């Protein structure tokens, strides 16, 4: 994207999450004068970090997947991830504890996965091989011909390059139906569907296109970056500064007025001018809190009617002593998780029999906890919009810790030396997330691809980036979203700036 914009064109990026940092890097590399303003004291957006009494917790995403996307991103700037951080391939990748006492360990090789599947169902090992081979083919087709291309509009799909996808029409059915073509055992179906939680969906409402996540998981494997996800954020910030981006943290944008070439952004420190604005804040928050009603693209009811990904009840626990069989990543699953998904999407309520996730980064990284201790994060997906007052949070905390002790044999209750929590309220207040969702818009069929918000706002010169836009949720997708936002800005340039208009009037 180099040499795509004149250096007298100013761009202000509002928000320093993965999407905002990515867009800032691409735009600066293209020649623009880029300023990034972040309301919090640290970059990262949802990918935050909590440090207390010698413990360090990633407060947002914790799975480093799709290393090819990170390599591609850094490669655009003649760099590579290893210039900033090292990666460790996790072994085991994760451990699954079912609530009937069964458990499996998934290791970073397909033969291990094949053996696991065959042990539950005759012929399932070969079925898995076929499933993963197709997932790999579909992954490369989807990434190369759809995701990287950034097809935001329905007309972008009228293209002969997409003909190889035509025989794959069943990928637009539900994941549950698609997986059922390969395996019957409910535990095997869960192993192929658990990654949907990363996309904010459920097996019954997520397109089978996302079966490609099994290729990401079981073929490409799971990694841990040096310094955790916070280390990746720091690396993106370093790259942005190297490219000339002026990063200002602790600076909240309170209002955006104007248009292309003549924007004015109000902060606590005064008014800042900009030719172009990129909002990494979600579109609902941007419209309802930063823009005047006359220039909003939607009325509030539009955002109320969207399907949001789950929120989360999260515990950040500093634990004294060992945590036994818990792996770096662990999943605790009921043998039938349909009720939990129903209590997220269909009849919102605090789950009676939850599926939940545990991160113990101290199993891999000894710097995140004092000697003899572990840093444990517990994440329970819950419906967005739930009442999460102190009484229900305390009650659910006790319930989850009791359940964890019963299902895994790891009793944390009397060994907690540091504790913090987050839930619906924090996501709504800290990030302006509608209904307190922790992830954004769910990847339902009608919120995928061209049916997901694009990067151009109706107001000329205002653009969006991040998880609410195409291509969607997750750190890799947000990196790509930033690239697409920058590309759209370059495609829309040149345009007449305020200075241009003033000069023309003077003549």
Automatic annotation (TrEMBL):
Keywords: Carotenoid biosynthesis, Oxidoreductase
Any one GO MF annotation of this record: oxidoreductase activity
GO annotation terms (biological process): carotenoid biosynthetic process
SUPFAM superfamilies: FAD/NAD(P)-binding domain (SSF51905)
Keyword check for Chaperone: no
InterPro entries, per database record: Amino_oxidase, Carotenoid/retinoid_OxRdtase, FAD/NAD-bd_sf
Oxidoreductase found in the keyword field: yes
Annotated ranges, domain Amine oxidase: 19-490
Record pathway: Carotenoid biosynthesis
Protein name: Phytoene desaturase
Gene that this sequence comes from: crtI
């Amino acid at each position: 994207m180099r040499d795509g914009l004149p250096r007298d064109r100013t761009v202000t990026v509002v928000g320093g999450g993965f999407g905002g940092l990515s867009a800032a890097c691409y735009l600066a590399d293209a020649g623009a004068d880029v300023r990034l303003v972040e309301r919090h004291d640290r970059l990262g957006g949802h990918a935050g970090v909590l440090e207390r009494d010698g413990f360090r917790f990633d407060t947002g995403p914790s799975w480093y997947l799709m290393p090819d996307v990170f390599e591609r991103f850094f490669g655009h700037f003649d760099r590579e991830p290893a210039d900033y951080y090292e990666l460790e391939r996790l072994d085991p990748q994760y451990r699954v504890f079912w609530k009937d006492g069964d458990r499996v360990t998934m290791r970073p090789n397909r033969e291990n996965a094949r053996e696991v599947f065959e042990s539950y169902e005759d012929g399932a090992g070969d079925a898995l091989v076929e499933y993963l081979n197709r997932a790999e083919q579909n992954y490369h087709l989807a990434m190369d011909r759809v995701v990287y291309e950034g097809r935001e509009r329905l007309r972008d799909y009228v293209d002969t390059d997409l003909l190889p996808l035509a025989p794959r029409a069943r990928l637009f059915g539900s994941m549950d139906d698609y997986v059922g073509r390969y395996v019957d055992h409910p535990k095997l179906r869960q192993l192929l569907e658990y990654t949907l939680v990363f996309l904010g969906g459920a097996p019954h409402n997520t397109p089978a296109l996302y079966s490609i996540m099994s290729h990401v998981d079981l073929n490409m494997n799971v990694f841990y970056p040096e310094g955790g996800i916070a280390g990746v954020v720091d690396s993106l910030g370093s790259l942005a500064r190297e490219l000339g981006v002026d990063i200002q943290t602790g600076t909240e944008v309170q209002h955006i007025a104007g248009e292309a070439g003549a924007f004015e952004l109000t902060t606590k420190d005064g008014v800042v001018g900009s030719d172009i604005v990129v909002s990494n804040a979600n579109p609902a928050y941007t419209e309802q809190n930063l823009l005047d009603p006359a220039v909003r693209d939607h009325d509030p009811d539009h955002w109320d009617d969207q399907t949001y990904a789950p929120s989360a009840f999260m515990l950040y626990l500093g634990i004294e002593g060992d945590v036994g069989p818990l792996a770096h990543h662990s999943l605790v699953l009921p043998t039938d998780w349909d009720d939990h998904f129903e209590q997220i999407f269909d009849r919102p309520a605090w789950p009676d029999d939850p599926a939940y996730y545990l991160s113990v980064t101290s199993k891999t990284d000894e710097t995140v906890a004092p000697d003899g201790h572990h840093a444990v994060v517990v994440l329970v997906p819950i419906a967005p919009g739930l009442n999460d007052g102190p009484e229900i949070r305390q009650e659910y905390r006790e319930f989850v810790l009791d359940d964890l002790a019963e299902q895994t044999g790891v009793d944390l209750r009397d060994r907690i030396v540091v504790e913090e929590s987050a839930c619906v309220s924090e996501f709504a207040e800290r990030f302006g997330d509608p209904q307190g969702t922790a992830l954004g818009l769910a990847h339902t069929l009608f919120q995928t691809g061209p049916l997901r918000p694009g990067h151009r706002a109706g107001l000329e010169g205002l653009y969006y980036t991040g998880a609410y836009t195409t291509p969607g949720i997750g750190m890799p997708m947000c990196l790509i979203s930033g690239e697409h936002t920058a590309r759209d800005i370059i495609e829309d340039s040149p345009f007449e700036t305020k200075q241009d208009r003033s000069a023309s009037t003077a003549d």
